[in-house]
Specification:
Blueprint: H1 2-11, H2 18-30, H3 41-50, E1 62-70, E2 80-92, E3 98-111, H4 120-123, E4 135-143, E5 146-152, E6 155-156, E7 160-164, E8 167-176, E9 180-193, E10 198-204, E11 213-220, E12 224-226, E13 232-237, E14 243-251
Parallel strand pairs: 1-10, 2-11
Antiparallel strand pairs: 1-4, 2-3, 3-9, 4-8, 5-6, 5-9, 7-8, 10-14, 11-13, 12-14
């Protein structure tokens, strides 16, 4: 009933022009708070062209995507904050058509929920396996690179390894304690494509309420530099949508 009423209001003459709707929904779509799917193939193609279908684009070079899914049957996701640190050393081949990458990915999951003070409907437990304030999350990290090693809070661990959309998917269940942080560290390595000497790194956002705190460091191997002559690039912030870092590379003067 809620969905029908909402759709009827959006489609009514009083909802405004298509331009007004696009302006209103633009930030919601870019943040992936609104995504639309249609059973009709023609309509779905139009939704994909408009960028509101939420489809995962093809790998263009290096790529990072982190997803967390609550498996504890509570409403605790609002309290979760995520910090992503990605350090990559990129070594292009002499032709500039591909590059080898060695990377460290560090993800900190900050569960700011307390063990008391809110009703069980919000902080649990709804499942007898858990306690109030615990966030039992299914974590997945998507990357085109191969996993060399993984640890959780400094302890070596094994992650499940699957493949989806031309990416490796490294996953595990994590029990996040109330008012505590859990840090996952991955060492990654592999080869990525360069587009006529252009390096692309996509940081793909999950549609969550709070944007991730993202810190990216890229360092080039010897003999190469960015277009401005530097050999390192750093990007940080809290992007409200997908983040694309795209940089032309060039051989350094001998």
């Amino acid at each position: 009933d809620v969905a029908a009423a909402t759709w009827a209001a959006v489609g009514s003459s009083g909802a405004g022009s298509p331009t007004a709707l696009a302006t209103t929904f633009g930030s919601l779509v870019s943040g992936k708070h609104v995504q639309v799917w249609s059973i009709d193939d023609v309509e779905q193609a139009a939704l994909e062209t408009a960028g509101v279908a939420g489809q995962l684009e093809a790998v263009a070079g290096d790529s990072i995507m982190v997803t967390t899914q609550n498996a504890a049957a509570n409403k605790i996701d609002w309290f979760l904050r995520r910090r992503l640190r990605y350090r990559a050393t990129v070594r292009p081949d002499p032709t500039g058509t591909y590059a080898t990458v060695v990377a460290d990915l560090e993800l900190t999951l900050d569960n700011r929920a307390a063990a008391s003070g809110l009703p069980p409907y919000i902080i649990g437990p709804d499942d007898p396996r858990f306690k109030a304030g615990e966030n039992y999350t299914f974590l997945s990290i998507y990357s085109p690179l191969e996993l060399a090693s993984a640890s959780i809070d400094g302890q070596p661990t094994e992650l499940t390894d699957q493949r989806e959309h031309n990416r490796q998917v490294y996953s595990t269940f994590l029990l996040l304690q109330p008012l505590s942080e859990t840090t996952v560290h991955l060492e990654l390595a592999g080869r990525i494509a360069l587009d006529n000497g252009v390096l692309t790194l996509d940081v793909i956002r999950q549609g969550l309420l709070w944007p991730d705190d993202v810190d990216i460091d890229i360092e080039l191997g010897s003999g190469w530099s960015f277009a401005d002559g530097r050999t390192a690039r750093q990007v940080s912030g809290q992007p409200s949508g997908d983040l694309r870092i795209q940089e032309p590379l060039r051989p350094s003067p001998s």
